[in-house]
Amino acid sequence: MKRISLILLLLLAVAALVAGCTTPQSPAPVATPVPAAETSPVPAAPLVPAGLADDWTLTTMGIQNGTAVINPTYGITLTFNSDGSLTGYDGCNNYFGSFTLTGITTPKGEGMTVSNLGSTKMFCAPLANQEQQYLYILSNTAAYDAGTTELTLTADTMDVLVYQRTDTLSTPP
Is the pTM of this model over 0.85? Predict the structure, then answer.
């Protein structure tokens, strides 16, 4: 038994000696960051094409597939903002929403959708019907056609909203 203990003790000593003789590993080299070459940021393309970027005043609403013409009784405005939002006044309430240009050319102009429409909640009895029709057509916009002084939005129902650049109006509607 003493012999086995001595052999085990000897093996243990050899193992400790071998383990202590290993060379320590050197740490992995640390990569030094190389400064990137300075580049000037590329300006993002504006979300609002030049033909839309302005304040617009509604001059005509064409309902019933665009055949019945309504001239608004109060000034209705629309502004397309560079962040993809739109704002305006519908004769009674301020409204807001967002628009997306689809990139598709349609027979009625360039593709556009209007979404997330909301408004303040004042009730103006004489204007309620006009306001409701206007916001309905605007929310269903499928295309726009922008000229120098006139903008036409056509809904997927074929109802239309015709605007004039506010700064070109001779008399308010």
Answer: no
